[in-house]
Amino acid sequence: MRKENRSKKLFSRAQKYLVGGVNSPVRSFKGVGKEFPLFISKAKGSKIYDADGNQYIDYVCSWGASILGSAHPSVVKAVREAATKGLSYGAATDLESDLAERIQKSIPSIELMRLVSSGTEATMSATRVARAFTKKNKIVKFDGCYHGHSDGFLVRGGSGLATFSIADSAGVPSSIAADTLVARFNDLDSVSNLMEQNRSQVACVIVEPVAGNMGVVPPEEGFLEGLRRLCAENEILLIFDEVITGFRVARGGAQSLYNIGPDLTCLGKVIGGGMNIASYGGRKEIMELVSPLGPVYQAGTLSGNPIAVAAGIATLDALTKSAYSKLESNSKKLGSGIAKSTDRTGVNVKIQRVGSMIGLFFCPNQDPKEFAIRNYDDIMKRCSKEDYAKFFNNMSDAGIYLPPSAFETIFVSTAHSNEDISKTIDASRLAFEQMGKGN
Ligand SMILES: *Cc1c(COP(=O)(O)O)cnc(C)c1O
Question: pTM score > 0.70 for this model?
Fold first, then answer.
């Protein structure tokens, strides 16, 4: 049996000082029915270790940021070297252009950009620029897509995609929530209806081109094209939130995979390789509205921090063509291996994968071959969080660390070996067998 005394103890200590003992709610493991979370002591390559000395194969990868696995030698070297030259200057460096140039070459729709420190900042700022450019106030987002925690994004549609949006969080003024309209992912009619009902008021449509915060939900054929067309017809900016998908599903992000050019793009996670970097950018004429060139204010003490930028550059440089092919083949093997290991266990799991993003949906008493999870409504209708929690705990006992909440993405890194993948598939078979027996 796995030891967990120390994690338990550390959690009681943390609760004395930190709200709920954590600095981000999902880390509490409440989503998988645990009374205390794992406390992490270190991570290296594909492995993560908790305070009790247990080793796990890590599929959280810092929520997708650690695409090379943890403590990749070239990234650590870059960070060490940068640190000796000072931790932060709050002034311009040539290093920032090195990172920006790499981003621009890989994602040409980003003609001009800003580096910021978190995905939340990137989406918040992109929205501000979109509003300034279009001189309109409302934004359209999709139910089940996450864009960080700024006020305007903590909103989901009421039932039936009502025009009246209500906030998902206390403390969000209703006046702000009212400007966020919520459409259904993979449903163009829901978007055009909102545009119709709010004629000449919508500044932007923001979307995760592959949704990664409700499990993994790929865009259906024509969905992103349709958004592109609807936005162009109505003088609305299209923002791709590629905080997860950028440099993940392809070097050029989802926009290169599906060949759609958004007006603005938000990046985060992978571009910092585990350090605090995010970015927003896009068409030059839009981005030129940002201060000091234009009237849109946006700033940051630690923006373009030299250590984070160094980590980002080293990460992007390690993401070679062969790194992406290894990611693809390992992810394919993992996805199909887990799917196959449900055979004859009586457990029904729908697996949806785009590159190294894998979503597992536990859909009791439904044949996963007969449907797709297309949006958040499908999840609510078909999926069981409780079954995911059982699977999570079984896997955790077997030394596999999955996201501690249902409907998150399982991330494969370039550090995962064939052996890691095979071990994970074997563990999943045992977990499904246990679950099939009602444990
Ligand atoms: C993680 C995430 C964000 C927020 O990024 P933070 O760095 O956590 O603020 C925004 N959008 C998407 C799609 C994300 O997955």
Answer: yes
